[in-house]
Amino acid sequence: xxxxxRGKILxxxxxxxxxxxxxxxxxxxxxxxxxxxxxxxxxxxxxYTYLAVRENALDLYGFSSEEELDFFELLISISGIGPxxxxxxxxxxxxxxxxxxxxxGNANHLTKISGVGRKNAEKIVLELHGKxxxxxxxxxxxxxxxxxxxxxxxxxxxxxxxxREALKKVPKEITSISDIVKQAxxxxxxx
Length: 191
Known about the structure:
CATH architecture of the largest domain: Orthogonal Bundle
CATH topology of the largest domain: DNA polymerase, domain 1
Order of helices and strands: EEEHEEHHHHHHHH
Mean pLDDT: 83
Number of strands: 5
Number of helices: 9
Oligomer: single chain
Helix content: 40-55%
Structural class: alpha+beta
Shape: globular
Distance between the termini: 40 Å
């Protein structure tokens, strides 16, 4: 099993990258956050991987941390959620927000992720509750504020990915939704 890769990035797209390890190019599928992380050091990119073996394909999924890989493996252990769906779920929200949603039992937050309906969101919360700990328990108010800010930015015409990237750069001491959105708009305006 291939569990980790370190090498030079040969090419990348919005959903994948090819990493040269000892003269062999490995294509990994990853979240936009992971792809951004590994592109910070393209000559010595490092990813934890999960090898999905199917009848007609061997697919590698890459993650910037073991914690993200562990959550991915928990997601694919749920009946009806395959590797591509699990990767989409991780792409749709940050790892901490997903953990907080599961710990707090907030299936509504998960339904805001593209491709996750009410039934799957409830199944994820039910099956993973008790198996994980949120890094910041009691963080549901912050999670809701971030979710509301993303919705506000999407209503203004920004994609979910653009909104999430901008919100990561907003200082943590800013807590009101209106101030968060204003700061995010300034960040988006400088691109």
